[in-house]
Design a protein that fits this description.
Strand order of the largest sheet: 5-4-3-6-7-8
Distance between the termini: 24 Å
Number of strands: 8
Helix content: 40-55%
Number of domains: 2
Order of helices and strands: HHHEEHHHHHHEHHEHHEEEEHH
Strand content: 5-15%
Length: about 375
């Protein structure tokens, strides 16, 4: 996988729509037998990291793996809910559709009856509830009235969200060069509260510098250098989610081969490794290296990304990029299978506390 971008709402409204769920970190901590009761203030850590970067200093990484192989996870302070505007129309439609479905079911109403209320078909109601079509404000208003949501903050929030579904994401500026099957990933990634990734051949896309990204993208069959440059810019633009006040937790495991394989030449690779060392201090990032000495492992089949959400209307998603297409897996059993694999690989990998030293060793040897 070369990374999913190259192919080869108001605060009150959000509070009503999306109750915070701490399932990702809590579930992992429980499964690994760890008490996740260390104090962690995400906003304070993030501002501390920014201050450290400005002054040239460093701060301690928020999520680390200790030398004993068990994972030490902080208790998450309640985060601000993500801004749906950054998630793009695909995610917004999924969220709004899921909320409409719950309201209809709570009202004891069939899709046929709901469809009659907006002079439409039950198949359209189904497509709306699955986020597969756009929304008209009039239809949403009529459905909410039928479902008993005639006024108040919930109605206002949903009507506002319906308007936002017509606002294109920033990545639409690159729609002429991005494969159609990769565009949904941008919105899904922007909305995620926890991102886990395994990379076999390359540095994870969220941690790539632009020169490295260009070198990777050139490995594909692109018609011009201009397209290479634009795709690289699109990839780097994705990294803005790590600079938000409420960045998603990003936990990546990278095979040792990705460090030793020089891409883009010696100078580019050295810049990339120095960037990875710097990003190890980001309070929302955990980076582990899977050494060759770990031997065979269950993730040898290829790279994948798991996107997890605190929003009740979004299912967790496994993203697997292929040469000419991508898979989006969201069935609970499928997601659970990949979670088991990445947790196992995380235990086989070197602890995150030694990652800067491993990166510095690789840097010294180039």
């Amino acid at each position: 996988m070369t990374s999913p971008d190259d192919g080869g709402s108001q605060p009150g409204a959000d509070a009503v729509l999306f109750p915070l769920v701490r399932q990702a970190v809590d579930r992992l901590a429980d499964q690994l037998g760890r008490d996740a009761d260390a104090e962690a203030n995400g906003a304070a850590q993030f501002h501390s990291w920014l201050a450290g970067r400005a002054s040239g200093g460093t701060v301690t990484q928020a999520m680390t793996a200790d030398g004993g192989g068990a994972l030490s996870l902080p208790t998450e302070a309640p985060q601000q809910l993500y801004n749906l505007r950054s998630a793009g129309p695909s995610v917004q439609r999924l969220v709004l559709g899921g909320h409409l479905r719950r309201l209809r079911e709570q009202a004891g109403m069939t899709t046929q009856r709901a469809a009659a209320g907006i002079r439409s078909s039950h198949s359209k109601i189904s497509r709306m509830e699955h986020g597969r079509v756009g929304f008209k404000a009039r239809d949403i208003g009529d459905l909410l009235t039928m479902y008993g949501v005639v006024d108040g903050p919930e109605r206002d929030a949903l009507l506002e969200l319906a308007k936002e579904t017509r606002t294109p994401g920033w990545w639409q500026a690159y729609s002429d060069i991005l494969p159609h099957w990769v565009e949904p990933y941008f919105g899904l990634e922007s909305a995620a509260s926890f991102i886990r990734e395994f990379e076999l051949q390359f540095v994870p896309g969220l941690l790539q510098i632009e020169d490295y990204a260009r070198a990777v993208i050139r490995l594909g069959n692109l018609p011009s250098e201009e397209e290479v440059v634009r795709r690289a810019r699109a990839r780097v633009s994705r990294q803005q989610i790590l600079s938000r006040e409420d960045p998603p937790k990003f936990w990546a495991v990278m095979d040792e081969g990705a460090l030793l394989r020089t891409i883009g030449g010696r100078d580019v690779m050295r810049k990339q490794l120095r960037h990875l060392i710097e990003m190890c201090d980001h309070p929302a990032i955990t980076l582990q290296i899977l050494p060759f000495t770990a031997g065979a492992h269950r993730a040898m089949g290829g790279p994948f990304t798991i996107l997890r959400y605190s929003a009740a209307d979004l299912r967790d998603v496994v993203y697997i990029e292929q040469l000419t297409s991508a898979l989006y897996l969201d069935k609970p059993a499928e997601v659970e299978a990949y979670l088991e694999v990445i947790e196992e690989v995380s235990l086989q990998a070197k602890p995150a506390s030694v990652t800067p030293d491993l990166l510095q060793t690789a840097l010294d040897e180039i």
